[in-house]
What we know:
Elements: H1 53-60, H2 77-80, E1 95-96, E2 102-104, H3 106-120, H4 122-131, H5 159-168, E3 173-174, H6 176-181, H7 184-188, H8 192-196, E4 200-201, E5 205-207, E6 215-216, H9 219-231, E7 239-243, H10 249-262, H11 276-286, H12 295-300, E8 303-307, H13 311-314, H14 318-327, E9 331-335, E10 345-347, H15 358-363, E11 367-368, E12 372-374, H16 381-398, H17 406-412, E13 413-414, H18 416-425, H19 428-435, H20 439-449, E14 455-459, H21 461-464, H22 469-483, E15 492-495, H23 502-507, H24 516-526, H25 538-546, E16 552-556, H26 560-563, H27 567-575, E17 579-584, E18 597-602, E19 611-612, E20 615-616, E21 619-622, E22 627-631, H28 645-657, H29 665-670, H30 672-682, H31 689-693, E23 699-700, E24 717-718, E25 734-739, E26 744-745, E27 748-749, E28 759-760, E29 765-768, H32 770-775, E30 783-790, E31 793-804, E32 811-815, E33 840-846, H33 851-862
Parallel strand pairs: 2-10, 3-4, 7-16, 8-9, 8-14, 9-12, 13-24, 14-15, 16-17, 17-18, 25-32, 29-31
Antiparallel strand pairs: 1-28, 5-6, 5-18, 10-11, 19-20, 21-22, 22-23, 25-33, 26-27, 29-32, 30-31, 30-33
Helix pairs in contact: 3-4, 3-5, 9-28, 10-28, 11-22, 16-19, 16-20, 16-22, 25-27
Amino acid sequence: MISMEDSPISDPSKAGQTHQQKASLAPKSGERPDQGTAPVADYEIPAADHPTKAGHEVSAGAPPAHEHIPAPPTSEAKYLHPILAQPPEALTGLRLEGRQKVAAGVTAVLKSMQFSWTEGGVGRGSRALLGLNQKNGFDCSSCAWPDPDEHRSVAEFCENGAKATASDADDKAAGPEFFARHSLAELSRMTDRDQNNAGRLTHPMVKRPGDNHYSPIAWPDAFDLIAKELNALDSPDEAVFYTSGKVPNEPAFLFQLFVREFGTNNLPDCSNMCHESSGSALSPTLGLGKGSVTLNDIHEAEVILIIGQNPGTNHPRMLSALQMAKRNGAKIISINPLIEAGLNHFKNPQDFMNPLRALGALLGDGTQITDLYLQVRVDGDMALLRGIMKHLFEAEDANPGQVVDRPFIAEFTTGFESFEQNIRNTSWEAIEEISGISRAQLLEAANIIARKQKIITCWAMGVTQQRKGVETIQEIVNLHLMKGAIGKPGAGTCPVRGHSNVQGDRTMGIWERMHTNFLDALQKEFKFSPPRKDGFDVVESLKMMNAGKTKVYFSLGGNLLAAGPDTEFIAEGMRKQNLTVFVGTKLNRGHLVTGKTSLLLPCFTHVDIDMQKSGHQMTSCENSMGVVSQNKGILVPLAGEMLSEVAIISGIAIATLGDKTTTDWVAMTENYDVIRDHISRVIPGFEKFNENLRQPGGFYLPNGPRERKFTTENGKANFSTTTLDKYTIEPDQLIMMTVRSHDQFNTTIYEYNDRYRGIHNERRVLFMNPADMAARGLKAKDLIDITSHFQGEERTVEKFVAVPYDIPKGNVSAYFPEANPLVPITSVAKVSNTPTSKYVVVTVVPTAVNNDKRIKQREKMLA
């Protein structure tokens, strides 16, 4: 019989706030601060008017996801093109240390100061940090973790936020003189770190056909060049408009407005590659493609599951919330193939300012974060979740009415019987084999969960980028529904977003499949007929670009070349464009692999003061928990000709649309309140946008699942019946996942180190299980080539360094973007079409073994 921990059911003293445990007391609309008065229907994921991804492909005219596409040359590409699409292969001197067991602490504070003062100087860097994430300051351009509703510390930032802010506040300029000195080929041979550290972009630049340098261009001429190319297209659908998740709400809204007035829905964005799987799973099951918890819920939870996420590197401020939850008695279960320092112990830098905690923070190991660590195999999370739920059903059999919340299920859900049968029918043999976790370990997890009622599950790209990322998240939802652990304080779903406004951009309409309600409201507000045909997502856009079916690529921020899969495939598509346009703040590799003509347009960052005709402007961002807050820059921009994103978009719109638009682009540029007034009439939840944004800390958007109001088609929360597949690979093959290093945010590389994993001064590494290394005759620091295998095609990257590491046997891991050339463009998650960067079949050989074969391949290619 399963042994369950004491809980509020058996021991009320264990409950904390016992009155909040009852499902009947789930919060109503407005009971939480500034949360709104009513939930709204979700506009993110297909409902009745877009029922399936297959239907979308027909509507958009996009190639089907299963279409076979030959692999591009990968290891040979450096001999074929003078401008490198991949980071250079030169090694920088690997130094290995032991894996760290504690995250943050004094080292994090020192690193934060070092980056800030090195990039922006002591005065400018310190001023930037003191305004970061403050209620009257600016929003961190790094992760989307929420800020506290009430008190905020003087240092309301983490190490990675400090690095991102320091990079934005850089006082070095990469202006016309810089580009005159360096050709595109020379720049491409710089490391990604050195490209970023070259300084802020300060002047609009153009590369004309046949040129190998960017040279200055006046803003009006740049706008006219874009307008000429766009208006010469046979169809608006021959243009692709990509968006980064760092773009605030106001320019994002303007961008989608311009693109739709131009006549297309081709609005791929970075979320297609990260949390598209989350939205695709959450909306059909819960009615909203976002999370259902607040920061206070994290503090109040009894159990927190963290799946496929490394908060110590990717969302460090989350560790403070987990620390508070632990101090309140929460148990934390971490599920990840790598044992990460941030999920072990955490030393809160804020504790150094507390006399009662300073000594312990300095000398001890800090707070233990994880109570149970399940080192799952790559792509084994669905099987693991089924194992936990299978144990829970057995516990319910032995303790009727004490484990499964049947009253909640009866009142709020559908599909339970089919789901229950599916879990019960799953064999323990399949669960253990696929997950790599024993039945006994899964029993430990079930024991922690069984009688608890306030449960939160957090996940990130370790789940969403699996082949079955959508169905795995549906199993997360299933776990919450069977426990009734949603729509009450301390319980719910928590997809942890990456970029600062990646969630807000989608809310603003940056999506290739926006729904009828949104398009109707846009038409009424701006007096034009938006296109109703679906546009292309990222993978579809890249396929169309590579096939020569598009002619213009426009990027509002970001670095799709380094963020996307199949790097050389993307590069081939970029080179086929007549025009590529990159709006950005700093140089990156994506700016160098261009179309025949290319524009590089410099814009402000979050930290820059944005002065327009009506005065100092502010923008807004939406965090992972649906809070919209203001962003108001505090540093004077560097000397040069940078413009705000709003001004750039409006300038292009005026030049391109001409008499075809009745939108007052000038008024919106002169005063961003005008943009927000439009948004307030188009997007539900943003009524009184200008007024609410000026409240300290911003405002909550309505959230149906948070209040047990499920805006699905049937008005219920829906259980899912998923399919658990066992995949076979060849005996010499391994499963690779890509990850970030600690000195990296998304594709931006700050340094060559990953100190928590013991990696210093190198990025071209492959983490391997020692047994897998021994089977291949490899020793630590041996040079290796890695080849991926998909649909009979091979892609190879050379000159990586083998590193023995604690990772499940049969699994390996490498950093992106270095390993992105191995991720096939057609290997995508079902439904979401997200590239499967967390499941790549590879073989590994010593570099010397393949020399003769490689030389022959190169000779054949060059001939």
